[in-house]
Amino acid sequence: MDPIATMRAEGMMRIVTDTVDDTSSTEELGRFVERFALMLVESGIPRMPARVFGALLIAEDGKRTAGELAEQLRVSPAAISGAVRYLAQVGLAVRARDPGERRDHYEVFDDLWYEAYANRDKQLEQWAALMAEGAAVVGTGTKAGARLDQSRQFFDFLREELPELMARWRAYQREHGHEAAGAE
Questions:
Q1: CA dihedral 155, 161, 166, 172 (to 10 degrees)
Q2: Are 109 and 62 in contact (CB under 8 A)?
Q3: 96, 87 in Cβ contact below 8 A?
Q4: With contact defined as beta carbons under 8 Å apart, do 52 and 69 qualify?
Q5: Half-sphere exposure of residue 87, counting CA atoms within 13 Å on the CB side?
Q6: To 5 degrees, how large is the angle CA 34–CA 38–CA 41?
Q7: Residues with Cβ < 8 Å from 80, sequence gap 6 or more?
Q8: Do β-strands 94-96 and 105-107 pair in parallel, antiparallel, or remain unpaired?
Q9: CA gyration radius for the chain?
Q10: Each residue's pLDDT expressed in tens, for the chain with a length of 184 residues
Q11: Residue 177: exposure state from Cβ atoms within 10 A (0-12, 13-18, ≥19)
């Protein structure tokens, strides 16, 4: 069962980040979400989307409503709205509604990192094309042109290598007994 839902049902949780009267498990979950968010912030992801992403990751079923996220993180629903919009844009979460439900929820998939990287081909192609255009504009014989062309080569390289890397990940999962849903 979902640890947060269990704590809510047993009256042990007002909010994950509260430390007063909460169990050590709740405190540990809250600390994990904040540490995880800090790591993402250091890599360039805005703080609120990073916190929401961390909260979704620790949810047993990988989903929460905006209200649940706002309560858990002790923020306004507007902050959640902006955060999940950002997460959806970058492919780290989706907005969904279960059959018969009246409210949307936000969800991460069990194999979310695979999904986030496996579908980057079009983006990498666009980046490579833009770098080629930039190199042509500044001149391929210049240092800036060489730098832009090297960036183009890097994105082309990633586009070529990514399918094989993803296939190797799927093989690794099978070898270690962690077959992903929908895996080839």
A1: -140
A2: yes
A3: no
A4: yes
A5: 29
A6: 135
A7: 48, 52, 66, 69, 70, 73
A8: antiparallel
A9: 21
A10: 444 444 344 443 333 333 334 455 888 898 999 999 999 999 999 999 999 999 999 999 999 999 999 999 999 989 999 999 999 998 899 999 989 888 999 999 888 888 888 878 888 999 999 999 999 999 999 999 999 999 999 999 999 999 999 999 999 999 998 765 544 4
A11: exposed
Question: Tokens in use for 166?
Answer: 């993803």
Residue with tokens 């930039």: 134
- Residue 81, amino acid: S
Residue corresponding to tokens 């498990």? 25
